[in-house]
Write a structure and sequence with these properties.
single chain, 197 residues, alpha+beta, 50s Ribosomal Protein L5, Chain: A, five-stranded antiparallel sheet
């Protein structure tokens, strides 16, 4: 089975043809993956260390800590308090992480019916939320004290939402079939409306 890096190289001619591009270098590609996780309440001692430890095991890179930009009394947080962690993966680490998500973690999810294609934004990036870290093999049940989730944003060089969707589908991202059919129908109706005007 081809890795994601090999797939990306193989699909370039197909993308050039499908998107009617003049140059091979204009074909959309993956650039980086940004992983974010919040620590929650300040009162939970040891949670921050646990999240940092798990994220570093899953990604193979130490997360950077992020502070609160402003004080919020409801959450009992002050400006500068450490409230989350982020990891930015590029190159080989990015491809390794995405291979792990698509081939190991997602198949271990309970009642998985596909990723939501609605996560693709108009800038050509895709954001998905993973509710539990237990789907990753690095988190063993023996030392699991707390279950948390994180958001992963996959950034691309795609200029539009449509380009990004074509790229992700070509790379083999398992999107929900119903959503794909619905979006294709909506795209056709919007084209018809434009023609009328």
């Amino acid at each position: 089975m081809d890795s994601l890096k090999q797939k990306q190289t193989k699909i370039v001619p197909k993308l050039v043809e499908e998107l009617k591009l003049k140059n091979v270098m204009a074909a959309p590609r993956l650039t980086k993956v940004v992983i974010n996780s919040g620590f929650g309440s300040r009162r939970e001692k040891g949670r921050a260390e646990l999240i940092v430890d798990r994220l570093s095991k899953i990604t193979g890179q130490k997360p950077a800590l992020r502070g609160a930009k402003k004080a919020i009394a409801t959450f009992k947080s002050r400006q500068g308090d450490i409230i989350g962690a982020t990891v930015t993966l590029r190159g080989q680490k990015m491809f390794g992480f995405l291979d792990k998500v698509l081939n190991v973690a997602i198949p271990r999810m309970r009642d998985f019916r596909g990723l939501s294609i609605k996560g693709v934004d108009h800038m050509g990036n895709y954001t998905m939320g993973l509710k539990e870290i237990t789907i990753f093999p690095e988190t063993t049940d023996e030392d699991l004290k707390d279950v948390f989730g994180f958001a992963a944003t996959i950034c691309t060089t795609a200029k539009t939402k449509a380009e990004a969707e074509i790229l992700f589908k070509a790379l083999g991202f398992p999107f929900k079939k119903k959503e794909e059919a619905k979006q294709a129908k909506e795209a056709k109706t919007s084209v018809k409306k434009k023609k009328k005007f």
